[in-house]
């Protein structure tokens, strides 16, 4: 099992719109290809933390590529960009729970 955790430096984002777009346009696409959504929250500093679970690193890479090339990802890219889901720096951690 592998957990991918991203911490987005999105303190100045429109969090309400970003939340709406994430749950409507991002989460379903990743789940369609087999990612297990674990959590998405904003920390006290306003950074957004998102966590997904995968069977393996290979599975994670396959799912990320499939989601990036999905017709809905491409179709709604502008909506994601306008509503704070792109353009922010992030740190990504790949965790291997024991």
Helix count, DSSP H or I runs of 4 or more residues? 4
- Largest β sheet strand count, sense and barrel closure: 4 strands, antiparallel
CATH architecture: 2-Layer Sandwich
CATH class: Alpha Beta
Approximate shape = globular
Percent in helix: 40-55%
Q: Enumerate the spans where pLDDT stays under 50 for 5 or more consecutive residues.
A: none
Q: At the third CATH level, what is the topology name?
A: Alpha-Beta Plaits
Number of strands: 4
Quaternary structure annotation: single chain
Distance between the termini: 9 Å
Number of domains: 1
Which structural class fits the helix and strand makeup? alpha+beta
What does this molecule look like?
- The protein is α+β, with helices and mostly antiparallel strands and 98 residues long.
- It has a single domain, classed as Alpha-Beta Plaits (2-Layer Sandwich).
- It is built from 4 helices and 4 strands; from the N terminus they run βαββαααβ.
- The chain has a 4-stranded antiparallel β-sheet with strand order 2-3-1-4.
- A hairpin with a 5-residue loop joins strand 2 and strand 3 (48-54).
- It starts with a strand and ends with a strand.
- The mean pLDDT is 90.
């Amino acid at each position: 099992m592998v957990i991918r955790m991203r911490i987005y430096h999105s303190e100045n984002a429109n969090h309400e719109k970003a939340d709406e777009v994430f749950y409507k346009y991002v989460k379903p696409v990743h789940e369609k290809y087999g990612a297990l959504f674990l959590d998405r929250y904003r920390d006290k500093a306003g950074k957004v933390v998102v966590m997904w679970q995968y069977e393996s690193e290979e599975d994670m890479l396959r799912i990320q590529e499939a989601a990036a090339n999905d017709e809905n990802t491409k179709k709604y890219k502008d909506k994601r960009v306008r509503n704070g889901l792109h353009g922010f720096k992030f740190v990504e951690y790949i965790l291997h729970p024991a």
